[in-house]
Amino acid sequence: MSDDQTFAAAYREHYWAVSRYVARRLDSGSGDVEEVVAEVFTVAWRRRSELPPSPLPWLYGVARYCLANAVRGYGRRRRLLARLGSDDTAHGRHAVAGPDAGSPGDWVHEALTRLSPADQEVLRLTAWEELGVAEIAVVLGCGSRAAAMRLHRARLRLRAEIDRMRPAEATATPHRDTPKEHHGHG
After folding, report:
1. CA angle 129-131-135, nearest 5°?
2. Is residue 83 a contact partner of residue 93, using CB atoms and an 8 Å limit?
3. How far apart are the first and last CA of the chain?
4. pTM to 2 decimals?
5. What's the pLDDT at 82?
6. Final residue in a domain of this structure, among 20, 40, 75
7. Which domain holds residue 150?
8. 10 Å Cβ neighbour count for 21?
9. I need a surface site. Which of 73, 82, 157, 173 has the fewest CB within 10 A?
10. Is residue 141 part of a domain?
11. What is the mean pLDDT of each run of 10 residues along the chain (186 residues)?
12. Of the candidates 5, 16, 7, which has an alpha carbon nearest to the alpha carbon of residue 43?
């Protein structure tokens, strides 16, 4: 298969996956998503001779860099939207006041937003894009062992953040109702 045919096949097969990847990470309108996806495939076209046999993780890696460029370009507008509250409102997300106020998914999302962008990305690659460690390594441009460690550490930090957000549940001890004065004398 020629480089042109390889690119065409990658485009047909992975366009929507790359679009979803970008849309889930870009807090703006669909025009911006289409612009970033177009940039991803422009880079892929220019580098079509480098496309691997399974190009999706490679395309996600290109998308990461295109998104970083787009975010820098949209920085001022995004900060304004965040101050106005439109960003979270547009995506139906909200901070949860307590364990009774929302579903467990709300807690997970809120905890995720408190993590570093690097931790958020590695967790999203495994949860949203359903990538394995080897594929995550391709996206992040690192080795499989480093990707596995980043994922492990991000999961630990997410768990710690969820625990911090639910202090009432975490500190409640089920042994409170057991009488302490009975020590088995008898």
Report:
1. 130
2. no
3. 85
4. 0.57
5. 59
6. 75
7. 101-167
8. 26
9. 173
10. yes
11. 90 93 76 86 92 94 88 58 49 41 63 88 87 90 92 90 68 47 48
12. 7
Report d(CA 186, CA 175) in Å as an integer. Answer: 22
Residue at 175 is within a domain: no
Specify the pLDDT at position 79. 57
For position 75, what pLDDT does the model report? 58
pLDDT at 116: 92
Q: Enter the tokens of residue 68.
A: 């970083």
Are 67 and 18 within 8 A, CB to CB? no
Tokens of 23: 């849309």
d(CA 137, CA 144): 5
> Tokens 């990847």 label which residue?
21
Q: What are residue 27's phi and psi, to 5 degrees?
A: -90, 60
DSSP letter string, 69-98:
HHHHHHHHHHHHHHHHTHHHHHTT----SS
CA 55 to chain centre: 20
With CA atoms as reference, report the closest residue to 25 among 154, 137, 149, 127.
Answer: 127
Query: Given the structure tokens 């391709």, which residue do they identify?
Result: 138
| Residue 49 domain flag | yes
Count other Cβ atoms within 10 Å, centred on residue 40: 25
Q: What are the φ/ψ torsions at residue 28 (nearest 5 degrees)?
A: -155, -175
CB within 8 Å of 184: residues ≥ 6 apart: none
pLDDT for 86: 45
In a domain, 145, yes or no: yes
